[in-house]
């Protein structure tokens, strides 16, 4: 500490202009994941069967579709932050830039596909 | 190691030199399990959802792979990976509040994450095998 003003320190913004935002969102999504993943495991284990008809019937209910959409957002956000830390620790230069781009495309494409699949089932199109 | 200057100075002791303690193993396992799920379990999760949204044929293909011996092996593996990441993640959240830094208690909680993940995996799959019929 020493460089920077008192106000900058209070705001938690260093030269990265980011502060603890990444760290905090990882914790917020961790709690989201904890609740939603346990809900998913309990729900799937409690389903009488995991065949197509049972799963679709289950996901058509709003009480299943809404948590599933929240789960996709929370889980994809959380691992987006986690894999970023891995890339920052072990890759450098151009490889890191390419890795981060690939990660962002992977997360957004995957989350979009997952959300679309849930909505298609929930809105009765599957 | 791009960007790191080459110097004759000795390197800091590394993984091959430090004595491996359970805290370090839990920390490494947390990173490995998290990234393994990001690269592996997420793809399987999406396959399951998209297959269900596509129709009975696509879903039947997923289910036949998932309930084959290799699919079940992968399922049990990722179940442990998830519970281990969850248990060490909860330990991290507790430590974020400034607790569990006493050496003995910290080591005990590190051990507990492994015990919890194994017990939860066995319990989950015991229920699946007895109720799902595969």
Automatic annotation (TrEMBL), chain A:
It comes from the Bacteria. CDD domains: SQR_TypeC_SdhD_like. SUPFAM superfamilies: Fumarate reductase respiratory complex transmembrane subunits. Its cofactor is heme. Membrane-anchoring subunit of succinate dehydrogenase (SDH). Pfam families: Sdh_cyt. GO terms for biological process: tricarboxylic acid cycle. This is Succinate dehydrogenase hydrophobic membrane anchor subunit. It is found in: Membrane. Gene3D superfamilies: Fumarate reductase/succinate dehydrogenase, transmembrane subunit (1.20.1300.10). Part of an enzyme complex containing four subunits: a flavoprotein, an iron-sulfur protein, plus two membrane-anchoring proteins, SdhC and SdhD. It is a multi-pass membrane protein. NCBIfam families: succ_dehyd_anc. Keywords: Electron transport, Heme, Iron, Membrane, Metal-binding, Transmembrane, Transmembrane helix, Transport, Tricarboxylic acid cycle. Pathway: Carbohydrate metabolism; tricarboxylic acid cycle. InterPro entries: SQR/QFR_C/D, Succ_DH_anchor, SuccDH_FuR_B_TM-su. Its main location: membrane. GO terms for molecular function: heme binding; metal ion binding. The chain crosses the membrane at residues 24-45, 57-77, 97-123.
